Each structure stands twice: as structure tokens, then as C-alpha cells.
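Closing statement on the PBG sub-project.
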Amino acid sequence: MLDKIFRIATRQSPLALWQAQYVQQRLMSAHPGLRVELVPMVTKGDIILDTPLAKVGGKGLFVKELEQAMLENRADLAVHSMKDVPVDFPEGLGLVTICERDDPRDAFVSHHYASIDELPQGAIVGTSSLRRQCQISARRPDLVIKTLRGNVGTRLGKLDAGEYDAIILAAAGLKRLGLADRIRQPLPAEISLPAVGQGAVGIECRLDDTTLIGLLQALNHEDTAVCVKAERAMNTRLEGGCQVPIGSFALLEGDQLWLRGMVGAPDGSVMVSGERRGPRDQAEQMGTSLAEELLEGGAREILRDVYQGQPPA
Ligand SMILES: NCc1[nH]cc(CCC(=O)O)c1CC(=O)O
């Protein structure tokens, strides 16, 4: 076992590399002598940077190549930001470990303004996330939302170049890259409900690799795993694989799980929200039943418009 080298497939963005190195270090310190190396790869999502993700195949673009590498035995594991992991996995692969969650919030970043509420009428806010666009517009319908894609560094560069008055990024990504000082206002869940899994790092591998799965258990954080399970169950019941304005955020208060969810029209004109509180061992059922309540409460019509096809049954 110890002479085997475990290979982590990773994208090459600074954030992806940080996360892969984090898992590499944690694996090596949990299992002294273990050999772990990175296999850097370029994915379609990294190449196509100028088109909204929903139009080019969604977030799955970032993980497909990594999964192919594991299936072809060119790599053994992949490290993902949980919010970029689609609901389904290819045959033979699965998510086996979820690490402790970092800051799950969205962050308001600006040179001239300290908060969303301080932005002047008609200010330009950068984001390509329909979820962020929806919630920002619901609070401030006067703001102009402008597309913003690329790595965290690229996005900050566009803000610095004056293309936007403010941009919205994940707090966790900024913190990991040592850029926490760029955060002017961490957005509370009441203003911007985070994306499913935001702030959590997950590890995918071949489900028959029992040696690796055993080694990875040292990195699993059960409280985070329970929260993300509830959030993903909600998303699974709602989503059809397309990028949609869905927020989902779970917190543990002792053994009680508090799950909040929202689905909204991209322009913020309609928002359907709900919540569940229940025992932690009901995480999945709570996610599913919250999704059903949202669907009944108007999410079905919102999603139908966004999918422009069949909504979930
Ligand atoms: N969509 C890209 C992405 N995927 C994960 C993070 C941040 C880290 C995390 O949520 O764990 C980011 C950057 C961002 O949204 O600002």
C-alpha cells in the first residue's frame, strides 16, 4: 500500500490547485509515509471562458475530464469545490469524503463601496451566477448585473480595471487564496443564500478503490457531510442539470439540522423560499421535502421557464 503513489487529478486554476494541495497535505499528515502527487489537467470549462456556463454545458464541464482520468486509471482521486459537483456521477465513481466546510457565504467586493446597500442607483455588479443575480436584484432592482467569468484572480482583475462597481465572489475562495482582505461585506444567508455545497471541498474516487476510501476517511467531516447531503438532496429533487437560480444552505445546531432553500427568477422578480428543521439523520428527507414545498410554491414555474423544457416531475 505504501509504495503506491496516489494521484490527484486537478484543474490548474489557483483555487483548484490550493484545494488539491490541501487534500494532498492532509492525506500525507494523516498517513505518514504515504505518497500523493498532483496530476494537473485542463478542462473544457477552463478553455471556454467567454460564454455563460449554462450555454456551454454547465458546471459539469469542470469535472468531466477529471472523472475520465480516474476511469482510465490515469488518476486515483479528484478534489472538487462541492458547489461545482453535479448531482450524478458516472458509473464506478462516487463522492466518498467531504472535508470541513470553510466560510459558506458570498462576499461583496468593491473598491468604493462598503456594502450592497451603499451602491448608488444603477451601479454595475459583476456575477455570472443566476443565483447571485436573482438575490442581488431582489434586494436592489435598480442595479445593473453584468456577466463576469474566469478564475477568481481574473474576476478581481476586471473589477480593478474599472469594469464593475462591485463583484460577488465566494468568501471561501478568497480566503483560500489569501485574498480575505478584498471582502468588504460577507453576505449573510438572509441576503444571499449560498449555493449548494458552497465552501466545502469534496473528494471523488473509484468506488472499488477500498484502500484509498479507507485512507480518505481521516479527512471526512461528518457535520459538513450531513449539511451538504441535505442541500444536495434538495437540489437533486429540483434540478435537471442546467444552471438555475437555486440557493440551499444547512446548519447544524447540536443534532438539529436547519435547512433553508430558495428558487428565484433570474431577474429577482419572484423568489420562493422555505426551510426545514429536523434531526440530523433526516437530512436527505428534509432536502427532498423542502424541494417539494418549493416546487408547489412556484418553483416549478420558475424552473420551467429556465429549463424551457420539462420541469422535474
Ligand atoms: N464557481 C467557481 C467556484 N467554485 C467554488 C468557488 C469558491 C470556493 C467554494 O465555494 O468552495 C468558486 C469561486 C466563486 O464562486 O467565487
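The radius of gyration is 19 Å. With this model delivered, the sub-project is considered complete and its resources will be redirected to Aim 3.
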